[in-house]
Amino acid sequence: MNFTSESSGKRIPCFRVLDDNGYPIAGSIFEQVNKEIAVRMYSGMVTLQIMDTILYETQRQGRISFYLTSTGEEAINLASAAALSPDDVVLPQYREPGVLLWRGFTLQEFANQCFGNEADYGKGRQMPIHYGSQKHNYFTVSSPIATQLPQAAGVAYSLKMDKKDACVVTYMGDGGTSEGDFHAALNFAAVTEVPVIFICRNNGWAISTPITEQFRSDGVVVRGQAYGIRSIRVDGNDALAVYNSVRTARQTAINEQRPILIEALTYRVGHHSTSDDSTKYRAVDEIEHWKTAQNPVARFRKWVQGNGWWTDEYESEFRSNIRKQLMEAIQLAARKEKPPIANLFTDVYEENAPNLVEQERSLGETIKKHPQDYPSDVPL
Amino acid sequence: MSAILRKIIAPGGIPAWGIRVIASRTYSSSAGGKEMTVRDALNSALDEEMSADPSVLLMGEEVGEYQGAYKVSKGLLDKYGPKRVIDTPITEAGFTGMAVGAAYHGLRPVVEFMTFNFSMQAIDHIINSAAKSNYMSSGQISVPIVFRGPNGAAAGVGAQHSQCYAAWYASCPGLKVLVPYNSEDARGLLKAAIRDPDPVVFLENELLYGESFPISAEALDSSFCLPIGKAKIEREGKDVTIVAFSKMVGYALQAAEILAKEGVSAEVINLRSIRPLDRATINTSVRKTNRLVTVEEGFPQHGVGAEICASIVEESFEYLDAPVERITGADVPMPYAANLERMAVPQVEDIVRAAKRTCYRSVPVAVNA
């Protein structure tokens, strides 16, 4: 009688291409990334960094109600996006705006959503960072954790029925893998044999819960086999490793019509969100270490500059350019009108329900009768 | 209070409250003599809709090989294959989430819950995703999905298999909630639900599956569809309005027969739809009869009857000659023993007594002309 041990004793190894100093590790096999893609990836990572810093501050100044950063996870964001095609459908958790950025969402569009103004594609219905864009194949962010995972399996089922040359990519954090939906989704995807890539950003923290309290397994990658899913553990702060693994995962998912699990190891440098102060539950020097010595942006920069594709001058010019663009976008977003009150009642159903038409009419009358009780700067 | 001739609001007229009165007579019983069980009605509706639209899928536990836990999906696996009739692993959260995702991307899934009691394990996907996505995405993500299965009490299945979810789901904007009673309802409403672009919760009743009802030729036609949000007057009357849905419609009709023998003419309304609720039909009827009894199997607090009562008080207060009577299930988890179970659900006698109470509570003058 032999009980299989609760742990295999050896941790699953981690795929890496670049060492901590941005040099390719001797003997590592990887698909090369050309200058155009590398520069686009790197500049996307820098843009994301700047966007996070400035929009976080904007919340602190009270101009938007909420924000959450992807600081420390720029490589996962941009490199995974770069490895996909625009037809691949993305179901994010909420720490992946870089994927949308890669696909062409502009700084102005990000700002509009955060300010909930009339130009927001979400018509002011969602809190900040809940971006979504049908034309970019990026599903609107949904707050409850891990609900996007079985839904991603469903989207993949639809793609499979259409026999499309595309897959679904869905993201979650380490905490999300504890949700029931994670297990249901992986099991389901395996049984229905659908082309979906599950990317887990294992960043060490779920608000204040460290991974030591989140699970007892060797991280997330080992769970794949339990569901019959091919899996890989990757250094999430190594842009080239992320790029390579997602490229291969995509090909496998589509050609073999099977799900893939990628565990990308990284660190959540920022607080969980603007509602959190992580110095209350973790050491400041731990945060500093990952912010500096293990910074994925700096690491990739070394490789890109090493190839002669980027310079220090470009860096400062680029950064100040983006900062300026973003500040302008924010000013514009703040000045734009709020969405009209009519938006309160539409889209509940495909066609407007009679009771809502009635309520809108009745609200309009009440506002006319008592204008002093309603903000005068909000259009009807 | 003397009997005052109430002004009857003509169809199309709009009183001060802004209620639109719509004639709600729909297909009446057939002259053809054909009968159909509710189970067959549902099966034929699924079959026809799957045949007409290749994006319609059925998924759930036991729907395929087993022909459906209640045989509602009999024959569908053979006809449409395992890609469209999917036997899922046991995970309500999993298959509901998966179906919602499929609906996001253009398929039209029909999700079967073995009983709506199990839908609670997937309720986040139903409410936070399916119901709210169209709104939260400002129309970018539409969710043409149907959640169906038996709801409410069966017989001798205890607390975790007997709850009625009509009130819970119907309180949520973004969902539509339908409650068929007979075979015609089952066919017409399920077809309408599958064709509808919004998420629909379709609450069936296990004990009605085997019941046979007459069905008209037009109801048997594959293009047959009932409008969502319109109640049906199953029996006309003038003394008291009895509003019910699902299995309780049958009980209300039996109660009406008994009441008729005692000189009380009851008007029985089959809601067919809890959200949207056909307040216009209910209010018109109460303005005619001046008395109301609501009947439901579910728990009393925050139930469907409570909402109807509020609607009447808001819109037809001065037409009431008696307080509204709510007949509901008992405020306890459903017990198992047969005698206890009987006491925990409404019986025909409860409805009869309630109707009589409304008729005797006002000053005994002649009832309205």
UniProtKB/TrEMBL annotation, chain A:
<dbReference type="GO" id="GO:0046872">
    <property type="term" value="F:metal ion binding"/>
</dbReference>
<dbReference type="InterPro" id="IPR029061">
    <property type="entry name" value="THDP-binding"/>
</dbReference>
<dbReference type="Pfam" id="PF00676">
    <property type="entry name" value="E1_dh"/>
</dbReference>
<comment type="subunit">
    <text>Heterotetramer of alpha and beta chains.</text>
</comment>
<feature type="compositionally biased region" description="Basic and acidic residues">
    <location>
        <begin position="360"/>
        <end position="372"/>
    </location>
</feature>
<keyword id="KW-0809">Transit peptide</keyword>
<keyword id="KW-0560">Oxidoreductase</keyword>
<dbReference type="GO" id="GO:0005759">
    <property type="term" value="C:mitochondrial matrix"/>
</dbReference>
<dbReference type="GO" id="GO:0003863">
    <property type="term" value="F:branched-chain 2-oxo acid dehydrogenase activity"/>
</dbReference>
<dbReference type="GO" id="GO:0009083">
    <property type="term" value="P:branched-chain amino acid catabolic process"/>
</dbReference>
<keyword id="KW-0479">Metal-binding</keyword>
<keyword id="KW-0496">Mitochondrion</keyword>
<feature type="region of interest" description="Disordered">
    <location>
        <begin position="360"/>
        <end position="380"/>
    </location>
</feature>
<comment type="similarity">
    <text>Belongs to the BCKDHA family.</text>
</comment>
<keyword id="KW-0630">Potassium</keyword>
<protein>
    <recommendedName>
        <fullName>3-methyl-2-oxobutanoate dehydrogenase (2-methylpropanoyl-transferring)</fullName>
        <ecNumber>1.2.4.4</ecNumber>
    </recommendedName>
</protein>
<dbReference type="InterPro" id="IPR001017">
    <property type="entry name" value="DH_E1"/>
</dbReference>
<feature type="domain" description="Dehydrogenase E1 component">
    <location>
        <begin position="45"/>
        <end position="340"/>
    </location>
</feature>
<dbReference type="InterPro" id="IPR050771">
    <property type="entry name" value="Alpha-ketoacid_DH_E1_comp"/>
</dbReference>
Automatic annotation (TrEMBL), chain B:
<dbReference type="InterPro" id="IPR033248">
    <property type="entry name" value="Transketolase_C"/>
</dbReference>
<keyword id="KW-0786">Thiamine pyrophosphate</keyword>
<dbReference type="Pfam" id="PF02780">
    <property type="entry name" value="Transketolase_C"/>
</dbReference>
<dbReference type="InterPro" id="IPR009014">
    <property type="entry name" value="Transketo_C/PFOR_II"/>
</dbReference>
<dbReference type="InterPro" id="IPR005475">
    <property type="entry name" value="Transketolase-like_Pyr-bd"/>
</dbReference>
<protein>
    <recommendedName>
        <fullName>Pyruvate dehydrogenase E1 component subunit beta</fullName>
        <ecNumber>1.2.4.1</ecNumber>
    </recommendedName>
</protein>
<dbReference type="InterPro" id="IPR027110">
    <property type="entry name" value="PDHB_mito-type"/>
</dbReference>
<keyword id="KW-0560">Oxidoreductase</keyword>
<dbReference type="Pfam" id="PF02779">
    <property type="entry name" value="Transket_pyr"/>
</dbReference>
<feature type="domain" description="Transketolase-like pyrimidine-binding">
    <location>
        <begin position="36"/>
        <end position="211"/>
    </location>
</feature>
<comment type="function">
    <text>The pyruvate dehydrogenase complex catalyzes the overall conversion of pyruvate to acetyl-CoA and CO2.</text>
</comment>
<dbReference type="InterPro" id="IPR029061">
    <property type="entry name" value="THDP-binding"/>
</dbReference>
<keyword id="KW-0670">Pyruvate</keyword>
